[in-house]
Design goal:
Blueprint lengths: L1 E6 L2 E6 L16 E5 L1 E3 L5 E3 L5 H10 L7 E5 L4 E5 L10 E3 L5 E5 L6
Antiparallel strand pairs: 1-2, 2-3, 3-9, 4-8, 5-7, 6-7, 6-9
Length: about 110
């Protein structure tokens, strides 16, 4: 289930997921907020090559067990998925426009910052 909200030049997509979230129950209406064409430019906690889709990248974030994955950035041209414990709110200086196909995804079910 997805709801799109147009905001200026960016499109926010709220994405629901049935993927288990480390044994916790997420009480939010959606698991991720996706912003096309933006990235978190800082070095991530983990970079995973060979990822085939934004959904796979999102699931890698949800399944992360070494750190609290609060956001993921997916680069479809290279298949790179960058996972981070930071978000556009905790590191606003690193949140910036990127190529049109880049997908920034923020985990709405992570613990509070």
């Amino acid at each position: 289930m997805r709801n799109a909200v147009i905001c200026g030049k960016c499109c926010y997509n709220n994405t629901c997921s049935n993927f288990p979230i480390s044994g916790r129950v997420c009480r939010k209406q959606w698991t991720f907020t996706r912003v096309s064409g933006f990235e978190l430019s800082s070095e991530g906690n983990e970079e995973i090559p060979g990822v085939r889709s934004a959904a796979e990248c999102r699931n890698l974030c949800l399944g992360s067990s070494f750190f609290e994955c609060r956001s993921a950035t997916y680069y479809p041209a290279s298949g790179l998925c960058k996972l981070s414990e930071e978000t556009r709110r905790s590191a606003p200086q690193d949140y910036r426009p990127a190529g049109r196909t880049v997908q920034y995804m923020e985990n709405e079910c992570s613990d509070s910052e």
